[in-house]
Design goal:
mainly beta, eight-stranded antiparallel beta barrel, 242 residues
């Protein structure tokens, strides 16, 4: 079972457990503010593609405006993970991480409201905003000989022997050498809300995002690198309203 299916099943289980709970405020959906936290899975990320925080404000009975911030790890589709002789894992050929920070402003329109205590609320949304890309070096541990090894950013000119790679560097090693890339992002999505309470909200957002940067991002030097990224995604979210 791949990581996308595992993530989806975990989200579904959490939604189901919430839907069967009992609360005094079930069936009352009048609210003016909502605060949501989400876990994202996308076609450019790993098991967990990123995190989302969103604040929505009612404009009319069926329309909201919202501000959101997304933090995401963007990967090159050519990335392949290997195991070393020591049992560690690494991505051969990878030279940089791309961490995307995406402030967004958007609008959400409710298409179908749910009946009290049952059903699914369906809405459509769109958002746009700047993208701040943090290009952080990908460190590996590389054997120079049988007794010595070094930890440094992967360079295809230096680290060409795959079997000499012993693993990756320490967590956040080299983060101080990161570079910035500036761009913009745009997304459109459908939102499916399953919660039955006034104060709590649980659901899934399924959508498509396009993101571009002012320069090419060198994630894998020997592969085709892009400055424009496209991805399908879903976000499991949970939050509260007032």
């Amino acid at each position: 079972m791949n990581s996308f299916k595992i993530f989806f099943l975990a989200c579904f289980a959490m939604i189901a457990s919430t839907a069967y709970a009992q609360r005094e405020d079930a069936g009352n959906y009048e609210y003016d503010k909502e605060f949501l936290f989400g876990l994202n899975k996308n076609t450019n990320g790993g098991l967990i593609g990123g995190f989302v925080f969103k604040v929505g404000t009612r404009i009319t009975d069926d329309q909201f405006s919202f501000f959101a911030v997304e933090l995401s790890n963007v990967k090159n589709p050519k990335e392949v993970r290997y195991n070393t002789v020591l049992g560690n894992s690494y991505i051969f050929g990878k030279s940089n991480y791309l961490y995307a920070i995406r402030p967004q402003y958007g609008r959400e329109v409710i298409l179908f409201k749910k009946a009290p205590n049952q059903g699914v609320q369906v809405s459509a949304l769109a958002a746009v905003g700047p993208s701040i890309g943090l290009i952080a070096p990908y460190y590996i541990e590389y054997a120079i000989n049988r007794l010595e090894s070094v930890r440094e950013q992967y360079d295809p000119e230096i680290h060409g022997v795959r079997y000499n790679i012993l693993g990756t560097g320490r967590l956040f090693e080299g983060i101080g050498q990161s570079q910035l890339a500036v761009g913009a992002n745009l997304k459109a999505a459908m939102n499916f809300e399953f919660g039955v309470f006034k104060s709590n909200v649980t659901g899934l957002e399924l959508g498509y995002m396009i993101e571009g940067y002012s320069k090419e991002i060198p994630l894998i030097p020997t592969a085709e690198n892009k400055q424009l990224f496209q991805s399908a995604y879903f976000t499991f979210y949970y939050g509260f309203r007032k």
